[in-house]
Amino acid sequence: MQRRTLGSHGLEVSAIGLGCMGMSQSYGPADEEEAVATVHRALELGVDFLDTADMYGPFVNERLVGRAIAGRRDEVVLATKFGNERRPDGTFVGVNGRPEYVRACIEGSLERLGVDHVDLYYQHRVDTAVPVEETWGAMGELVAEGKVRHLGISEAAPETIRRAHATHPMAAVQSEYSLFTRDPEDGVLETVRRLGVGFVAYSPLGRGFLSGTVTSPDQFAPDDFRRHSPRFSGENFGKNLAVVEQVRRLAEAKGVTPSQLALAWVLAQGEDVVPIPGTKRRTYLEENVAAADVELTAEDLASIEVVAPRGVAAGERYPAEHMSRVNV
Hints:
Layout: E1 3-6, E2 11-14, E3 18-19, H1 32-44, E4 49-51, H2 60-69, E5 77-82, E6 84-86, E7 92-95, H3 99-113, E8 118-123, H4 132-144, E9 148-154, H5 158-167, E10 172-176, H6 188-195, E11 198-202, H7 234-254, H8 258-267, E12 273-275, H9 282-289, H10 298-307, H11 320-323
Parallel strand pairs: 3-4, 4-5, 5-8, 8-9, 9-10, 10-11, 11-12
Antiparallel strand pairs: 1-2, 6-7
Helix pairs in contact: 1-2, 1-9, 3-4, 4-5, 5-6, 7-8, 7-10
């Protein structure tokens, strides 16, 4: 597995990471044993960059990841997040960036993960009621104490990124980025590159749409997040499916799967970009990892641009309430 560096302070990770959220929520029934086997297989394949968050489950996903990496901590670059406050029953409280909440969260995450530090700690969403400098001041204290090695922020606007980075050096910004979501090209990528900050792309397969395996909303389990996603609803579904079909044709001509083509495109956007496709099954993991060996020519990239230009996806990536919490 190729390696990439996030930020300018030596955080080295596998070129493709593993998003662990779907192992515990949002994408149908969980299978913890298969999830643990998937993490173990990822490590065997050289994928050491694991991404979780306290809100996933909630709290359940960190425990699952902790179980999977028990006895193998030195093999893992571990990232988790705080800021989306949820109750144990799953209800959403709100975005919380208060300094005292930061400290409470890291203590909980370390306990659930069974580790004494995390390698990358993200502010998951920006709290508009708390100056980002206050939140990042508290996060910086965690670095000084050795509980966190590097800091990051998720779904933040360029000015927020600059303010946070000025408070404490930032290693990575994590935002949704794929052929279906190219919002970071509107200032975020330029900002992180000027600051020497890495970029982590979540949902690089458009929440599975770009894999070519989704052909009907009826495939989704009752509790699947996508049942309520604008891009998977009504007329939008058919429009987006037509785009995926064109991506599939390009992939077939290249001799790769649609997922591999979509991931190779994200990897081709820069050596400072690291996609973290989420999966809970070893078969999909292995398919995704193989994308690191797909080389896209200038002609390939031009062809992809024709079928999937910026703004090609029909519908917002989240329901309205969630959209208010991104690019903040």
